[in-house]
Structures are given as structure tokens and as C-alpha cells.
Amino acid sequence: MTPLYETDRQREAREMGERLGAKADIYGQRLRSGYCEVHPDVPEPYPCSICHFEGERAEGQRLLDAQYEQAMWDAQLAEYEQEHMAGACVGLS
């Protein structure tokens, strides 16, 4: 099962598990039945509750990054428009 959001580490674990027929965790150790491939000490199947938390946290960070980037573009656009509109008004006098 592929989670809705997954970190690079989680994706690598899933892909490695698929290549090895889910016989090893991401560290190359023998995968114990009923344990997470990414967090081998967690007695939950992959994706475990920690995987879900990390995925949600990663998605939250991606959203914050996107909001920050949008705010930066908006600020640059406003500055550009202000500079060029001021120049256009001076030319009308």
C-alpha cells in the first residue's frame, strides 16, 4: 500500500522492499513480519504511525515552503509594479 504522502526515506524503503520482495528493511536487515520496513523497531506494518506522522509533517513543510515562495513572488511583483507605475505617472506630467 502506498501512502498518500511519503518522504524520500519512506519511498526508498517501499521501493527497496518491492525489489527484495519485502524480505529486508531499508537498512538491509531481515524484515520481521508485522514490523515497519522504515522503522524496524515499530511493531506495525508499513506504513506505521511514525511513517504517517513523518509524511504529514513533510507535506506540511511543503505547503509552508509553497506559501513562502508565493509571498516572495507577490512581494517582488508589488515592488515591480510600484516602481514602474511611479515612472509611468512621472512621464504623464
What are the SSEs and their pairings?
Blueprint: H1 8-19, H2 49-92
Q: Keyphrases for this structure?
A:
93 residues, mainly alpha, 2 helices, rod-shaped
In short:
With 93 residues, this protein is mainly α. Helices cover 60% and strands 0% of the residues.
Question: Can you walk through the features of this model?
Answer:
The protein is mostly helical and 93 residues long. The protein has one domain. Helix content is 60%, strand content 0%. It contains two helices and no strands. The radius of gyration is 24 Å and the shape is rod-shaped. The model has no long low-confidence stretch (mean pLDDT 80).
Number of domains: 1
**Main beta sheet:** none
**Residues in helix, %:** 55-70%
Instruction: Give the SSE order as H and E letters.
Output: HH
Mean pLDDT: 80
Structure annotation, total helices: 2
* β-sheet strand percentage: under 5%
- Large-scale geometry: rod-shaped
**Total E-strand runs:** 0
Based on helices, strands and strand pairing, what is the structural class? Answer: mainly alpha
Distance between the termini: 67 Å
Low-confidence stretches: none
